[in-house]
Amino acid sequence: MAYEWWIGARYAGLARTGRGGRRGDRFVSFVAASSMAGIGLGVAALIIVLSVMNGFQTQVRDRMLSVLPHIELYVPGSGHERVLEHWRDLADAARQDPAVRGAAPFVAAQGMLARGQGLSGVQVRGIDPTIEPEVSDLADQMASGTLDSLAPGAFHMVIGSQIAQSLGLMAGDTVLLLAPQGSISPAGFTPRMRQFTVTGIFSSGYYEYDASLVFIDVQDAARVFRDSGVSGVRLRIADMQRAPQVAHSLLDRMPAGVRAMDWTQNNRTWFAAVQTEKRMMFLILTLIVAVAAFNLLSSLVMAVKDKRSDIAILRTLGATPAEIARIFLIQGALIGVVGTLGGVALGTLVAYNIDVIVPWIEHLLGIQFLPQQIYFISELPSNPELDDIAVIGATSLVLSLLATLYPSWRAARLQPARVLRHD
């Protein structure tokens, strides 16, 4: 098969005769190089786009989990005071799992903030400020004030930066917190409300949480929301990716009635949407590689037509149809392999250095692709994953090899007598 590899490589433009080749060879090599470039650019584009999408997903996930715990253990239907009295028992049982790194009590409920004519629906989280750093990075995200200002009976509150902006609040201002439960009197339904003093503003960089989360002391939350919400223990584990497995295993150590909710369940809709978007983007960008594969098919058909005389001569010299087919299979395979490897190298290089390339392009063009006041990030994130790169490379190789089948079959069916008679 040595001559088949040599001829196939020459047709692919990867081998030369000693005399520089004929004009027809140069044309076939040019078309082959175009096919290689098309496959390479398609593979590189797919790797870069999916790496950027992975980077966005990772960055948003990390910002979400800087405020929220990895796992929540809660007791539905149980009074907050009773749960808070025994939360250390749940925490000690959870710490028997070596994956658990921290535990803190919480009360979660929904309410409404009122300031003058402004109203804002919020998610209220009652926390213990002295233990909260074990399960979240909230203390490090304080734009003003400190988390330690939350104290039992003081009715202080830490709010998100977007809530502060929408209601015009600053540290030291007072705000009215309304609970969904209340009392019925002859005058009608009166919601339960309590005045709080804003003592801190946090900024997580994730708009949804900055616009909806407020934190108060866990004891104050138990008093205000004594008839609503849930309470339990927030946990942080060593590997956030194992949160579903750890949450399931923790239930075996917990008393009856305790439930576990991990961060993937709390944000299931968002992550499902991201995964669907990623799959659709993969399918759409795979069409670029498919177009390059069709280009490879057409270039091989042109090569077969241009090399009819060469094929006829080889057949008269004793080459079998299978050997002729292998020549063009080798040509197409070499084009696909070289194009795919070049695309993987280019895409990986750009994906791993996008933090340098994008600022250089912004400086060169005098524009900013990601204004921080809009996207809350100033750099384009990128997170290349080896699994994605392997799937992209394998997909490109399969499409390239499939594109070689028909031209090779046509070359093997050429009749040398008919070709030589017409040529």
Automatic annotation (TrEMBL):
Q: Which GO terms describe its cellular component?
A: plasma membrane protein complex
Q: What species was this sequence derived from?
A: Castellaniella ginsengisoli
The similarity comment for this entry is: Belongs to the ABC-4 integral membrane protein family. LolC/E subfamily.
> Where located?
Cell membrane
What does UniProt give as the signal peptide span?
A: none
GO BP terms: lipoprotein localization to outer membrane; lipoprotein transport
UniProt keyword Glycosyltransferase present: no
Record's PANTHER family? LIPOPROTEIN-RELEASING SYSTEM TRANSMEMBRANE PROTEIN LOLE
**Entry keywords, A to Z:** Cell membrane, Lipoprotein, Membrane, Transmembrane, Transmembrane helix, Transport
| Residues of the ABC3 transporter permease C-terminal domain | 283-416
Keyword Transport present in the record's keywords: the answer is yes
Spell out the protein name for this chain.
Answer: Lipoprotein-releasing ABC transporter permease subunit
Question: Where does the MacB-like periplasmic core domain lie?
Answer: 35-250
Give the matching Pfam families: FtsX, MacB_PCD
TM segments? 27-53, 280-304, 325-352, 389-409
* InterPro entries, alphabetized: ABC3_permease_C (IPR003838), Lipoprotein-release_system (IPR051447), LolCE_TM (IPR011925), MacB_PCD (IPR025857)
Primary location group: membrane
Bilayer topology term = Multi-pass membrane protein
